[in-house]
Amino acid sequence: MGDKYIISEIEKDHILSLLEQKKRIDGRTFDGFRDIKIETNVVEKAEGSAIVTIGDTKIIVGVKAVLGTPFPDTPESGVITTGAELSPIASPYFESGPPSEAAIELARVTDRTIRESHCVDLSKLCVVPEKHVWILFIDFYVLNHDGNLFDVAALGAMAALATTKIPKVKVLEDGSVEKSEEKEQIKIEHYPVAVTCYKIDKYNVYDPNFKEDRVSDSRITIGFDEEDRIVALQKGYQGTYKPAEIMEIVRESLNVSKALRKELMKSLS
Amino acid sequence: MGDKYIISEIEKDHILSLLEQKKRIDGRTFDGFRDIKIETNVVEKAEGSAIVTIGDTKIIVGVKAVLGTPFPDTPESGVITTGAELSPIASPYFESGPPSEAAIELARVTDRTIRESHCVDLSKLCVVPEKHVWILFIDFYVLNHDGNLFDVAALGAMAALATTKIPKVKVLEDGSVEKSEEKEQIKIEHYPVAVTCYKIDKYNVYDPNFKEDRVSDSRITIGFDEEDRIVALQKGYQGTYKPAEIMEIVRESLNVSKALRKELMKSLS
Amino acid sequence: MGDKYIISEIEKDHILSLLEQKKRIDGRTFDGFRDIKIETNVVEKAEGSAIVTIGDTKIIVGVKAVLGTPFPDTPESGVITTGAELSPIASPYFESGPPSEAAIELARVTDRTIRESHCVDLSKLCVVPEKHVWILFIDFYVLNHDGNLFDVAALGAMAALATTKIPKVKVLEDGSVEKSEEKEQIKIEHYPVAVTCYKIDKYNVYDPNFKEDRVSDSRITIGFDEEDRIVALQKGYQGTYKPAEIMEIVRESLNVSKALRKELMKSLS
Amino acid sequence: MAGDGTVKLIDEKGIRLDGRKADELRPVSIKIGVIKNANGSAEIRMGKNIIIAAVYGPRELHPKHRALADRALIQCFYRMSTFSVNDRKSPAPSRREKEISMVISNSLSSVVLTEKYPRTTIDVYLQVLQADGGTRTASLTAASVALADAGIPMKGLIASVAAGLINDQVVLDLFDIEDQKGSGDLPLGYCPVLDEISLLQLDGVFTVKQFEDSLNIAIKGAKDLYEIQRDALKQKYTDIRAEVEVPEKPKAEEPKVEPKVVPKPVLKVEKPKTEEPKPSEDDKREVE
Amino acid sequence: MAGDGTVKLIDEKGIRLDGRKADELRPVSIKIGVIKNANGSAEIRMGKNIIIAAVYGPRELHPKHRALADRALIQCFYRMSTFSVNDRKSPAPSRREKEISMVISNSLSSVVLTEKYPRTTIDVYLQVLQADGGTRTASLTAASVALADAGIPMKGLIASVAAGLINDQVVLDLFDIEDQKGSGDLPLGYCPVLDEISLLQLDGVFTVKQFEDSLNIAIKGAKDLYEIQRDALKQKYTDIRAEVEVPEKPKAEEPKVEPKVVPKPVLKVEKPKTEEPKPSEDDKREVE
Amino acid sequence: MAGDGTVKLIDEKGIRLDGRKADELRPVSIKIGVIKNANGSAEIRMGKNIIIAAVYGPRELHPKHRALADRALIQCFYRMSTFSVNDRKSPAPSRREKEISMVISNSLSSVVLTEKYPRTTIDVYLQVLQADGGTRTASLTAASVALADAGIPMKGLIASVAAGLINDQVVLDLFDIEDQKGSGDLPLGYCPVLDEISLLQLDGVFTVKQFEDSLNIAIKGAKDLYEIQRDALKQKYTDIRAEVEVPEKPKAEEPKVEPKVVPKPVLKVEKPKTEEPKPSEDDKREVE
Known about the structure:
A: Ribosomal Protein S5, domain 2, D: five-stranded mixed sheet, 5 helices
C-alpha cells in the first residue's frame, strides 16, 4: 500500500505517538487481534467455502473442484490454483479491472502457504494418472478491507479446504470417469496459518486495521504449520529489517500462529 | 444512447413539438416505417448472409457454419452464437475497440429472439452426438447507423439464417466426419421478428431515425413469432413504463410485427 | 518511426547537409556498414540462438522447438512462427505493453524472409502426419536500438535457425511420440538475408544509426536468397519512390546482401 | 430455456418442487450495512441466492471526461463469484454480466435523483456469492436498498422479481431448476411508490395472455417484496434509535459509522452521507 | 504461398482459370457514398472481393497527446468480417490486419495534404465483406476514392493492385486460388498523377527480372484501375449535377448531405466538408 | 518444490552436483554498460543464468497522475524471454513475473534516494535471457549495479542471493535442479553497507533453526556477491580512467557516453547523469 495512498501526516503522527506510549488507536496490545469469526459451508454450490472476519475485514473463500488433465510433468498429481479479487466492493481504494499487483501478491502468498505446507496430498487428487485429476480452484474475494488481508485469506483458504467435499468418481471401462452423487471430505494433512507482522517506524504490531496497515513501512507474512515449521514467508512493502529483527519476528509470529490455529481448529470441529 | 450523446435542447424541443402535433421530423406516422430492403446471399463465402436496410440504417449479417463439439450438457444439440460489431464505420459516435455495452445488448437481444423462438431445431444440427455438431456463428456488422438497430438486426439474422446452406456430412467408419461439396438448406421452424417501440416523452414511435433514437427516453424491443407469441423482450434506456402502457405497446407491436414479417417472407420467396 | 518522434529540425538539417557533401554523421559511405558481430549458441536452453550486433544495435534471437499438431490444411508440414518484442529495455522511445505496430511489422517482415525463402523444409519438421509436427518458435528481443533493425533481425533469425538442434523423436506403437536425448541439427536449404535501404530526402543510405533511421522518409527492406532471388520486400514509412528508383535500390541491395551473407556464413562455419 | 415436459415442476394442487404456490415468493431476508467501508450496503438471501450490494458515492469520476454535466452517473458492476454456480464460472467478466450490469444501472437511474450530484459517479457493486435463479432481480432489489442505506435520495425503492412459465403455468419467482426447465422467464423491476416499470426482459415463449398474467403476478410479487425492503430499512432505523438512546460522542476517526438517521426509509432522504459531491483536494489525493 | 506445380493456373494460350489474360484486371466496380454517416465512402467490388471504405474527418483526435502539431494523422483500420473467408475469421484483430492497416495508412499519408489539418485525425475504416485475394490493394484503392468523396485534398489518387507469379509467369491481379497456389505476390500502391510508388510489399520467390516485369505490369494495372476510380468520381459529379438542376434548399438539419461539388474528382478539392479543423466546443461535447 | 529424496543432490563430503560446497556461490560475472541507450545497465551471469538489467531515468512519468509528489517512483519490469527455459514461456506477462517485479521494485526503493527526484520515474528493465534458478535474486543484484552505473544516488548496493534446503541441508545459491528437487528456497536481498534486508521470501518447509541457518548463509553469500558488484563498478572506473588519460573532447551529439566519473562506486554519487529531474519541453515532446 505504502505508495498508493497518501495519508495525512497528522494521522501518521497520531498513530506513532500512541505507539511510543505502547498504545494502539483502538486500544489493543501490539500483538492483540480483533475478534475472529470463521464460518464454513456458507455457499452450498461450492465444494468448500468459508467466510472469515477479523474485526471489520471480511473475506469469502470458495473451492470449486473440477475434473481436468494433470500437468505433463506431474501426471499423478492433482492441481491447486488460487486466485484473489480485490474488488472495489471492499474499499474505496480498490479499482475495477484485471487483478492488481496487490491481488496477485495476496493470491500467490496464500497459495504458497497452502501448497508448501502439503496440507492436501496432491497425489490423492489423482483419479486416472495422465488423464483425470481433480483441480481445486480456491478463489477468494475480499468483501471488506480493514487491514491484515494475508492472515484472513490464509485462514479462509484453510477453512474452505478443510470443509471441501468432492464427488466420488467411478472409472468406466472405456477410461472415462463418472461423478457419483456421493461426496467425500478431502483429507487435510497439515494446518498452516499465516501471521503477518507490520512494522510502523520501529514498532511491530499484528492485525492492523486499515489505517495502521496503510502507514506501515513494511510487513512480514509467515506461514507456519502445526509442527511449527515455516512453509512460506513474504516481506512486503518497501521497508527493511535487520537480520536480528527477522528472527525476533519469526519467534513472536510463531506464538501468534498457535492462537490463530486454535481459532481455525475450533471452527472445524 | 440517452446518456452518451448530448443533443441540443433545441433539437429535442423541435422533435417534441412536432410529436405534440402528431407529426414526425420526416413526415411519417408514429408507427410508419421507412423503406425496408432485404437482400440475401450477398456474401458467397458465408453459408448464409443478408444486408438489411431500413431508411439509412444498414446492417450486414453473415452466418458461418463450423463443425465443433457440443456443450457437455447438451450432447445432441448444435450451437448458435451471435456477435455484433458496432464499428466506427457506421457512425461518428461509435468507437474502436472491444464490443461496447451497446453492441453486447444488440447481439444478446437478437440472440434471444432467434434462440427462444426455436426457429432452428438445434437437434438437427447434431451430426454425431457428443462428438460433432454444427456451430452456427451469426455475426452482424452495423454499416450505417440511422436508428432502430434492433429491428434491422433481427430481420438480418433471420434472412441470413433462412438462406443458410450447410454442407452435407458423411460419418466415416472411424467416427470422423467428412464434409461433402453438396449443400443443404437448413430448415426454419419459426419466423420471429423484432419490433421496437421508442418512447419520447409520452409518445410512442416506431422505426426512429438516429435523432429520434437519440432523444428517446426508453424503448421496448419485442420478438414475436408467426403464431403471435412473444419470444423475447427487452426494455432499454433509462425511462419507465406504467403496466398498462406495456400491454398497449405489446398489442401495437404485434401488429407492426406482421408487416415486418411480410417483408421478411417476401425476401425469402 | 517518422511520425512518432519529433527530431529537431536542426539535427535533420545537419544530417542532410552532410549527405549533400556525400558524408554521413559518423563518416561512413552511403552503403558502408558498421561492425557486424554474430554470436551463436548463446542460450543453451534454447534449441537455437544468436546475438547479432551491428554498431550499437543488438538483437537476441532464440528458437524453441515444440511438438504440436499441424494446421488441418497442411497435415504434413511443421510450423514456423515468429515474434518480436521491442521492449523498452532497448530504447527510451519504446513503451511497455502488447506488441506495437512497429514490433508486428518487424516480426512479420522477418517471418516472410524466412518463410518465403524456404530456408527450412517444413515437410522435414513433420513427425507423424496430422498428429505430431515440430513447431519452431523464433522469438527475438531488441536489446539496444541504434537503427537498422530489419537487417539485424533477419541475420539473427538465420543464425539462430542454422544452429538449431532438435531432439530425435521415436514414434511409439500407440502413435504417441517420445523425444530422445540425442539432438540433430536442422537442415538449412537456403540462406536469405535482408537488406534495408533508407531514403533521407533524395539520398539512399544503408545501415543507418538511430538518428538517420529517425529522419528517414522511407525505407525498403528486401530479402535475397543465395541465388540472388528476391524472397521478401517491404516498403516502410510514408515516403514514396519512382519506379526506376526501386530497380536501382534492388540492384544495389543485392550487392549489399552478398556482403551480409558472407558475415552470416562466417559465423556458421 | 427448454420447455422440457418430462420434469413435473408443479403438481395438480399447484404446488411447486420447493413447496411454494404459484404466486409465492421464496423466503427472503435483507440485511443492511454488511459492508462497513461502503457508503451503503445490503445482503439479500432469496431462496439459495446470496448477493451483496455495496454503494460507493456520490464520488469523483475517473476518467473525468465520462462525467455528466447535469447529473450523477450510476455505474453498476454485477459479478458472479467463480464458486457461485455448479460449474465454476471463469473470473473474466462475461457478456451476460455486462448486459445485466447495464439493465440494473438503467433501472436504478430512473429513480435516483441524479441531478443532485452533477459530475459525480454513484458506483453500485453487486457480488453474487451463490446463484439460484433470478440473480439479476435479487441484485436489483438489494441495490435499491443499499442506495437507501447510503442515503442517496430516490423517488422510490425498486423491487425486482421475475415471473415465468412452468408447464405452461404462470408462476412467480423462478428458482434454479424452474429457470432451466421452465419455458419462459420475465424479470421485472418495479417501483411501487411510482407504479412504474424500470426493468423488463423476457425470454421463452409466451402468449400475449400469458405475458399479461405474468406481468401482473410479477408486479404483485414486487409489491410483496417491497414490504420486506421497507422492513429491512425500518429495522435499521430501529437499531440506530436504540443505539442513539445511549448518547455517545461519535468517534472522530470514524466519520463513516456516525449514525445515519433515516426518518422514513425511502423517499428523498434529505442529506446524503457524502454531502459535498465535489471532493476536496485531500480526498482526491487519497484516491489516486 | 507455395509454388504448387500440380495445379495448372494458366494454359498454353496464357488464359487463367477465370478466363483472364496475364495483364488483365478482374471486373471492378466502385460505388461512392455508400455509407451515409461518413464524410466520404466507397464500395469496391473486384472479382469476388467486396470491401467498404468509410472516411470520418478531419476531426478531433483522442487522446489528444497523439495529435501531430503540424499535420493531420491518418489512421486506417482494415478489418475482415468473420464471414468474409472460407474458414471463419476470429473477430479479434490479427497481426496481419494491423500490418495491413499500417501500410495502407502510410500509403495514403503520402498523398493527402495532411498539413492542412494540423492536430486532427482522418480516420479511414476498411471493412472486408468478402475476400478473394488482393484485399489490401482493393482496400487502398477504395480508401483513396473515399477520401476524394470526403473532399479531403490530395496530391493524387492512389490505385492499388498486385502482380504475381503463377507457374513462373508474371500476371496481374491475383485472385484467391492464384494467391494460394502461385509462387509470388507483389502488392503495389501507385499514384499515376505523381508517378510515385507508396505501397510495395512482396512475398514469394522472384528473380530480379521477374520482379521488374511484375512491377511494370502492376504499374500498368494501377493506371487502368485509376481510370475506373476517376469514372466513379465523375459519375458522382454527374449525379450531383443532375440533382442540382432542380434547385432545392439544403435541409438545415442535415448538413452532411449538402451537395458536395467536386469539380475535378481528384486534385486539391478546395474546401473539405469539415471546414474548421478545430471542432467547436459543441462538437466536442457531442463526441464524448 | 518437492523434497524428492531419490536424487542425491549433495554427497557425503558436502559436494553438490555442480561441484560446489554448501556455502559457495556459483561463478558470477557482472559486466557494466551493456545497453548503450540506457542510462545505466549491467549483465549478470551466475551459473547458467544470463540476465540484463537496464535503467532509464529519472524521467517523466506517464500517466502523470501516478507520479509521487515527494519522490521518484521506481518501476521494475522483470521479464523472462520465451526461450530462457526448457519449456517455451508464453510471451504474455505471468502473475509470477508481476510479483517478482514488485518485490524487486520494493527492494530497490529502500536504498535509492528517491526523494531527490520528485514526480519522476526510474524504470528498471530486467530481461532474463537464460534461467537457471535464482533469477529474481540475480536480477536484483544486476539491477542494483545498473542503478549505480546510471549514477542514481543510493544508500548502498543490494546484493541478492538465495539459500535453501537440499536433502535437509542448508546450502547457498540453488541452481535449477536444486531449486526443483530441493525442499526449500529463501531468496534474500541484502544491503551490506546498511546491514538491512530488503527482500525476503520463502517457500518450502523449514524448521526455525534451518531458517536461521539459511538466513545467515544467505547474508554471508550476499556479502561475497557484494565484492563482485564492487569490482564490476571499479573495473568500469578503471576503464574510464584509462580512457580519460588520453584527453578527448566529448562528442557533442552523444551526450550519453560522456565519461561518468564514479569516484566511489556506490554511495551517493554526487550528480546523476540526468541532472534535471523535470525534463524540458523538448524532451517531453520527444517522449510522446
